[in-house]
Write a structure and sequence with these properties.
single chain; mainly beta; Jelly Rolls; 7-stranded antiparallel β-sheet
Length: about 100
């Protein structure tokens, strides 16, 4: 699934959309699309992870804080931090996992 495919499916998506963009022996790049009010439920990142918002507005929530992230914002997700992500508008973001 390409970025264009993600963005085409996004307006009617009722669950998270994802696409593995790149994978090597040491890292992965995953594209995630969330329609407005769609949520990635609580989970932990599988490794050191940088979240980069490409389009839209998401809310990153963990026990200690809530972050509003918009296009071009990024956030380094701490290891073992339980968190959820919810879209406040149709959104596309990348996860770089090392």
């Amino acid at each position: 699934m390409s970025f264009n495919d993600l963005m085409t499916q996004l307006p009617t998506a009722t669950k998270p959309l994802s696409n593995l963009v790149y994978k090597s022996s040491t890292s992965k790049l995953i594209a995630i699309g969330l329609n407005e009010q769609v949520r990635l439920e609580k989970h932990t990142a599988p490794g050191r992870t940088k979240l980069i918002v490409i389009e839209g507005h998401i809310q990153y929530k963990c026990n200690q804080k809530t972050l509003d992230l918009h296009a071009y914002d990024s956030y380094d997700i701490p290891l073992n931090e339980v968190h959820s992500v919810e879209a406040l508008s149709p959104s596309l973001f990348l996860l770089l996992i090392a």
